[in-house]
Amino acid sequence: MTSAGPDPSVPVVLSVLGRLPTDRPPGVLAACDGSDGSLWALDRAMTEAEAHDLPLYVLAVVNPAPTGYPPGMAELVQESVETLVESMADGLRRAVGAVQRARARPCTAEMSLHVVLGNVIEVLLASSARQHTVVAGTRGNGGFARLLLGSVSGALVHHAACPVLVVPAPPEG
Predict the structure, then answer these.
(1) Measured distance CA(27)–CA(52) in Å, rounded
(2) CA angle at residue 49 from 53 to 56, to 5 degrees?
(3) Structural domains in the chain (count)
(4) Which of 16, 70, 126, 129 could cross-link to 161 by cystine, CB 3.0-4.6 Å?
(5) Where do the H-state alpha helices sit in the chain?
(6) Beta-carbon contacts of residue 88 (< 8 Å; ≥ 6 apart)
(7) CATH, residue 26
(8) pLDDT by residue for the chain (173 residues), tens digit each?
(9) Is residue 148 part of a domain?
(10) What value, to the nearest 5°, has the Cα angle with vertex 63 and ends 39 and 88?
(11) Residue 140 belongs to some domain of the structure
(12) Does residue 70 lie in a domain region?
């Protein structure tokens, strides 16, 4: 799947809490990092949400400081973090638009897009608490293509608080 222009009509919720908002009903949570694997997973998540008549939460996680900032640096990089978050929100809109266009029909599930700051695995595990299902691809944008199951999907399978659906790449043909 390839991405196309973003759909500005799809709102994106920014959360600095490190998890999805807790005031929403349980639904299908789709982890999306823009990789092909996450787009295939997003397509399946749309189908799951429709089949179970549940809301679909599409989640992208931004980790602006994987190892943390030294004292005083956080304020200096705030503008860069804001740019990174907006870029991720734009990418999320593009991903949803690309999957919507590739489907035979538009997704009818109630959908919301979320960009959350934090560690990817920690955010997904915390966000899995109250969800019906978490859907993820077998591998994302990590650099270890030889792995069958990526670190994020592996952590979800072993530690999520709800059922996890791991979507493999479609067969080549």
Answers:
(1) 9
(2) 110
(3) 1
(4) 129
(5) 36-51, 73-76, 78-102, 120-127, 151-159
(6) 60, 62, 115
(7) 3.40.50.620
(8) 444 444 555 556 766 556 677 788 999 999 999 889 999 999 999 999 999 999 999 999 987 765 555 666 656 666 677 888 888 889 999 999 999 999 988 899 999 999 988 888 999 999 999 899 999 998 654 444 444 556 888 899 999 999 999 998 887 75
(9) yes
(10) 45
(11) yes
(12) yes
Q: What is the DSSP letter of 11?
A: -
Length of the chain: 173
Task: Quote the pLDDT of residue 16.
Answer: 56
Q: What is the pTM of this model?
A: 0.82
Instruction: Decide if 6 is inside a domain.
Output: no
Q: Look at the alpha carbons of 107, 109, 114, 120 in this order and tell me if their dihedral is positive or negative.
A: negative
Residue 78 in tokens: 């705030």
CA-to-CA distance for 40 and 56, rounded, in angstroms? Answer: 15
Range of the domain at 42: 12-167
CB 88 within 8 A of CB 118: no
Pick from 42, 23, 43, 18: nearest CA to 127: 18
Q: What is the C-alpha to C-alpha distance for residues 158 and 112, in angstroms, rounded to an integer?
A: 26
